[in-house]
UniProtKB/TrEMBL annotation:
<protein>
    <submittedName>
        <fullName>FMN-binding negative transcriptional regulator</fullName>
    </submittedName>
</protein>
<dbReference type="Pfam" id="PF04299">
    <property type="entry name" value="FMN_bind_2"/>
</dbReference>
<dbReference type="InterPro" id="IPR007396">
    <property type="entry name" value="TR_PAI2-type"/>
</dbReference>
<dbReference type="InterPro" id="IPR012349">
    <property type="entry name" value="Split_barrel_FMN-bd"/>
</dbReference>
């Protein structure tokens, strides 16, 4: 994560909400075949534990059980032109939000995998209202069993939380807001909003 303490994000509840809202990220692990990454949907299955699943054919899958891994979720990001600050001798930068969760991975049994899939779909189906909520009850049992045979579920017990909110906190309010205006004009409205309303 970014080394500047001005950008450090330490509010675990806010980071947890951020990961829940994003619901997707990249899992990294060292393997005998070299470093590997998997792009996975995640859900909190306990206060300090995320659940996820990967295709059994994914090269990382056979190395995860018992491994230490790093999950990273990214939010809005944007290139920031130095011209926007209205100050001399500035350089380009990139603003972003990110959370890293590091911990021990354990393989799930079938029941836990079903629960993880149910939680994940319920979380995201609820956001699609007024669409009727999809559940696995709509599937034929044989089809579900075949699909479960193609994936493996895991949990990551979080041992370290690291967050970065790089939103121009190292600039004066006037310079930061001027850069937010530049981002807004270039279509990066989510980042502009965050820079105007720095999260607590």
């Amino acid at each position: 994560m970014h080394p500047d303490p001005k950008f450090r994000w330490e509010d675990r509840a806010a980071m947890r909400d951020f990961v829940t809202e994003i619901g997707f990220g990249t899992l990294f692990a060292a393997t005998p075949d070299g470093p590997r990454a998997a792009h996975v949907p995640v859900i909190f299955v306990a206060e300090d534990r995320i659940g996820f699943h990967v295709s059994r054919g994914n090269g990382i899958a056979r190395h995860l059980d018992g491994a230490t891994a790093l999950f990273s979720a990214h939010g809005p990001d944007a290139y920031v032109s130095p011209d926007w600050y209205g100050l001399e001798d500035q350089v380009p930068t990139w603003n972003y939000l990110a959370v890293e969760l590091e911990g021990r991975v354990a393989k799930m049994d079938r029941d836990a995998l079903l629960d993880q899939i149910d939680r994940l779909s319920a979380e995201h189906e609820a956001r699609l209202a007024p669409k009727p909520i999809w559940t696995r009850a709509k599937m034929h049992p044989g089809t579900l069993d075949k699909m479960l045979g193609a994936i493996t579920g895991y949990t990551l017990e979080i041992q370290a939380w690291r967050g970065t909110r790089k939103l121009g906190q190292n600039k004066s309010d006037a310079a930061r807001l001027a850069a937010a205006d530049g981002l807004d004009a270039s279509g990066k409205r989510a980042m502009a909003h965050l820079m105007r309303h720095l999260p607590l």
